[in-house]
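dumping this here so i dont lose it again. seq + smiles for S-adenosylmethionine
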Amino acid sequence: MADNPARTAVTGFYEAHPISEMQIMDKMRADGVDLDALTQDVLQNYDQDHYGGTAANDALAHAAGLDRDVRALDICCGLGGPARYMAAKYGCRVTGVDLTSSRVVGARNLSRMTALDGLVDFTVGDALDLPFADQSFDAAYSQEAFGHIPRKDRLISEAVRVVRSGGRIAFTDILATATTTTETRARLSDGMAFNELVTMDEYTTRLESGGCELVGAEDLGAEWREILLKRLKMYRSLEGQTVGRFGQEHFDAWDSIYAFFVDQFRTGELSGGRIVAQKR
Ligand SMILES: C[S@@+](CC[C@H](N)C(=O)[O-])C[C@H]1O[C@@H](n2cnc3c(N)ncnc32)[C@H](O)[C@@H]1O
């Protein structure tokens, strides 16, 4: 996989992200969790890197039709929190793919610790060039990641390609709105590797022209505004750890861009959405 500026920005951003395998382990240790007897019930409180925690996974699982007969793909799986949750709760097999290799290593390690590695597996790969044959999966889902990825036509066509006819594609993402300015896009691209934010309509149009029927499109902006204020507080509570790992300058830059990002949910320049489609 050759590097390009968008990919390098994403992997750089996630290699220095406040949430990491090490931070999850440190937090569990600090909370007195017995790491030699780690269970999914406990880990799921620490390893979800999206908005709305496990309830958001349930909403996506229902939308994507996950059950024990399903083989699902988690596109941009991060540390594998949602994949483990879906496998443990719904009995499906899940393959996760992510661009950032340390995320994939963390996903594998955490899955081994909870003995879920028989139901989930993880691969380094680009969502724009998925390393899977056509129609390999019954369903594909993703959470809070597509905003990092340019060329949405290619992103959607790859997701559609690897899902069987009649299978579901369900995802949540940060959305641009009619008022998102060029300056805001540039700042979020530089600071958070959001390489291409699009509106709900742009996603639904692309899915329909890419061979899918639209099943649902729900605006989550108001819900996420509250969640993001709490997340900003949580990141600020990790200042000591983040400074220890990456330095004060990194923390200050992170804090400034994250506060700006969260504020755009108040100004209306950003929103969020859950989009569900079925391949024809
Ligand atoms: C906010 S995290 C979400 C992780 C996971 N979905 C979760 O909810 O816990 C976004 C993830 O997208 C991944 N990502 C970004 N661009 C990608 C691409 N082009 N292909 C694959 N993964 C990508 C990042 O490496 C990161 O792990």
